[in-house]
Amino acid sequence: MMSCRGNTAFQRALITGASRGLGRAFAEGLSPSTDLLLTGRNGEALAETAGALRGKGQRVDTVVADLATPEGRQAVINAAEADGIDLLVNNAGLGTFGNFLDVPVERHQAVVDVNISALLTLTHALVPTLIAEADGKGGRAGLVNVASGTAFVPVPGFATYAASKAFVLSFGEAIAAELAGEPIDVLTVCPGPVKTEFGTHAGYQRPYLPGAIAPERVVEATYRAIGRQRTLVIDPMSKVAFGPAAFARNAISEVVNRASRFSVRT
After folding, report:
1. Cα dist. 204→7, 98, 152, 208 in Å?
2. b/e per residue, 213-223, with b = 16+ CB within 10 A?
3. Angle between helices 119-137 and 70-83 (to 10 degrees)
4. CA 211 to CA 143: how far, in whole Å?
5. In degrees rounded to 5, what are phi and psi of residue 193?
6. What is the SS3 string spanning the chain?
7. Rounded distance, CA 23 to CA 17, Å?
8. Of 161, 204, 208, 223, which residue is the catalytic one?
9. pLDDT of res. 213
10. Residue 6 — pLDDT band, cuts 50, 70, 90?
């Protein structure tokens, strides 16, 4: 279990999409010394996850909310601001499998609402809270945005999902550069397929997508990378294909950020 970056322990973490799968693994991967605020749409599954963690002596609060809606997003923001957080894991995500025109547009819209709008809204609202908490304890906060290996390429059959994750990747890299001078570490995670129910919910006919890895591997690699890098590509095939591109993208975003700051000053 992990709860720290360097010598800085996370005191309270908000994890979205925590009912099951990768989100639950992110919650289980933190030390019992880290208080948790978990959110998800499935109240029964969320309660089961919270109960299991409380059984280990961990303080766990929950918010049942649909992040596809403005009301759901605001409920989560209110809960996080009430007690403060110093780690935000934007894990919640939806996908649709099938040719674009064969999938109802409402499902595509839900993917955009959760994967983009919710992540954007929560990040904008809660980064000031994260920074304030870090300043208050004299340490650092963490922001983890879960993208995907599909963020680097167009993926027929997962067109909307891959495009939404491309947004998460680009957005995460940009704000990591913007926040470089603040006491917060921003990490965008790009796992390949993971052994969760994501594929089934997306409409894929097999239990897991090809090459799927255990969620615990993603979580362990993620927490280990906070404060050490800005973009994390996890599975071996993606590392070979996209690792150099991730390094280059980070370097370019830093150059652009410095150039824009210089132009503003002059």
Report:
1. 42, 8, 21, 8
2. bebeebbbbbb
3. 0
4. 27
5. -60, 140
6. CECEECCEECCEEEEECCCCHHHHHHHHCECCCCEEEEEECCHHHHHHHHHHHHCCCCCEEEEECCCCCHHHHHHHHHHHHHHCCCEEEECCCCCCCCCHHHCCHHHHHHHHHHHHHHHHHHHHHHHHHHHHHHHHHCCCEEEEEECCHHHHCCCCCCHHHHHHHHHHHHHHHHHHHHCCCCCEEEEEEECCCECCCHHHHHCCCCCCCCCCECHHHHHHHHHHHCCCCCEEECCHHHHHHHHHHHHHHHHHHHHHHHHHHHHHHC
7. 5
8. 161
9. 80
10. very low
**Taking a C-beta distance cutoff of 8 angstroms, is the pair 89, 13 a contact?**
yes
Q: What are the angstrom distances between the C-alpha of 150 and each of 163, 192, 218, 236, 244? A: 8, 8, 15, 14, 15
Question: Once rounded to an integer, what is the mean pLDDT over residues 228-237?
Answer: 81
Which single residue is written with the structure tokens 């599975």? 235
pLDDT in tens, 175-220: 999 999 999 999 999 997 777 665 555 555 555 666 778 899 999 9
Q: Tell how strand 87-90 and strand 231-233 pair up.
A: unpaired
Is residue 202 within 8 Å of residue 160, measured between CB atoms? no
Residue 204: active-site member? no
Q: Is 189 in contact with 226 (CB distance < 8 Å)?
A: no
Rounded Cα distance, 50 and 233, in Å: 29
Q: How far apart are CA 36 and CA 264, in angstroms?
A: 40
Radius of gyration for the chain, computed over Cα atoms and rounded to the nearest angstrom:
18
To which residue do tokens 């674009």 refer? 100
What's residue 106's pLDDT?
Answer: 97
* pTM (two decimals): 0.85
Q: Give the whole-number percent of the chain exceeding pLDDT 70.
A: 79
